[in-house]
Amino acid sequence: MDGPGTLTWEEFIENADSLIEISNKIGDGWELRGNKDALGEAYLVRRKKHLFPENDSMFKIDDTEDDLNFELTLTDDPFEAPSTIEKPFVTEHHVLWSMSYGVPVLYFHGWKSDFPGINPISVQEAQSLATDADLNYNELSQAIHPVLGTPFLHLHPCKSQELLQFTSKSKNKLVSWLSTIAPSAFLKLQPEYYDLTV
Known about the structure:
Distance between the termini: 25 Å
Strand content: 25-35%
Shape: globular
Radius of gyration: 17 Å
Mean pLDDT: 81
Helix content: 10-25%
């Protein structure tokens, strides 16, 4: 699918390669997995462990009510001294290309533990943790990862075309798109990536 608000497979791979180049320079951990030569078979991946003080309000769980209430602030500063005992929060993000929509799609996991797969966050918890009220990206659900065939949380691509239209002048539409939806999926992009867009 070509046209305003879309991204071709070739553009996706080119933009992803540029992102990986910056990631390698700054040690940010993004990888490109899969087969770049097969349509829709390659995707970006990054797993990151975040730590927060146990007695701080960075990640509070109130399970006394029917709805779980969370507050989360991610910090990427490895040199920040812990004020108390720290608790882990592991995130894993996969950025794929949707053949149907011609746009990037974000799949992710979050675990309230040191180990991926242990104590995963649910769709409801993820929705309550999303930090960007302005984006109002409420199309968060669970879906099967099209390459891996396992369940992931994902942001439905229905708004991605609209977001890509707003970034049509960007030299790296993938980074521009990712920066707009990042707060809805516990993702923080380092400032170095924005140099790719101008």
